[in-house]
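Re: [help] complex structure
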Amino acid sequence: MKLSVLLAPTLKEVPREAEAASHRLLLRGGFIRALSAGVYQFLPMGLRVLRKIEGIVREEMNRAGAQELLLPALHPRELWEVTGRWTTYGDDMMKVKDRTGRDFGLGPTHEEVITNLMAQEVQSHADLPKMLYQIQVKFRDEPRPRHGLLRCKEFLMKDCYSFDATREGAEKSYAVMKRAYETIFTRVGIPFFPVQADPGLIGGSLSHEFIMPSESGEDTVLRCESCDAAVSAMRPDGSPEAAACPACGKDRKKMTGMEIGHIFFLGTKYSSKMHAEFLDADGTRKPIEMGCYGIGVSRLVSAVVEARHDEKGIVWPKSCAPYRAVVVPILMDKPDVIEAAERLYRDLDLAAPGDVLLDDRPARAGVKINDADLVGVPVRVVLGRGVSKGLAEIQERAGQKSREVPLESAVEEIRKIWA
RNA sequence: CGGGGUGUAGCUCAGCUUGGCUAGAGCGCUUGGUUCGGGACCAAGAGGCCCCGAGUUCAAAUCUCGGCACCCCGACCA
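Output below.
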């Protein structure tokens, strides 16, 4: 992609509203723009990051044996009345009426919808187990959206639901998902740790949050440094957890972080209310054992930036960078430089189709290089004076210093970095 | 929902206290020129419902009242 045609409006100055590092950098880098409080537009580069993270999540879900589907965002009120959550979820759910006055909710989560589906489709223990997931826009009427993509009224979420015939099977599904989550966050490239958590409004008996340590986070956890066990600093009843680790007795440290994933063992909480039952081998009808597993995909974008930035801008991990490399010709009046840049761009684009940027803008060197640092593409190739000696300058965004390589081996060198 | 703050050019902001000239600066944008390896310089331009509404006044960006929006802290929340 040529930067001259890409909608990637970088900002030199920080928009007034941005406070958190990820919020500032995503705005400045031209990844996102606000439409309203907690409602964001993903510009082309922002969407590319979102899609890459989505791709990692999708691969790991599929690998874990989950099947992708797509459920509606518009939920009829009656469905939520069955579980009582039309009332208990309350104002956190966006509610709308159709032209006849019928009530609908914009889905904040999908237990009702998917349990209803499975109630219709599952007859026998032979139909189980099943794991189903979707990557979809969710709506939650947050009383206070904040920090850009961190907490939004509309956001992209991966939600997965497991359906098992037995409690043991359901616990196994839970464990499979927990492992998949660990793989996902590792691949995305952010630090994290699991925490025993409060099941909250989703409900159920067992639940883990995945926390990324960050000052911008909203969660406080107690973490034991010797055995790594961690819990929410507040228990459901509001009383603070004791400072000593129950596992090893050592002191625990209070720290803040952001929740990047949450998994719940649900048991039969929804299935029994919604009559999602199956006929077991022994001839009795039983409610399905369920679990649900969420990752805020759009929130992950800001989590990555919180974890991976420096004073110059974003330092995208290779796995979710909007582009894998950017070619930056900085002597725009030198035909050999232009020509070398276009050739290198074509060759790199052949190696990573659609994943390479060419900064063909007629801008000054400083502007281009600062933009490249801000946007945070992992590999930058500067073409300037060195071109007359057949040299290109490769700089890894995460690295310290650049190095010069012969133009003809530049593609090969960059492929090594990508590998 | 409680507390605090902010709404003036695309962005960052000054002007408001003490009402009055044609509403400003920097950055960005357009055109021309000089520059050209780390956010250049000179010149000429374009760009405004001073958040909205009602009031006070000869006169309101400025004062009063009411609303709306956005940000931060808290409550709540995955």
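DSSP finds eleven helices and 21 strands in chain A.
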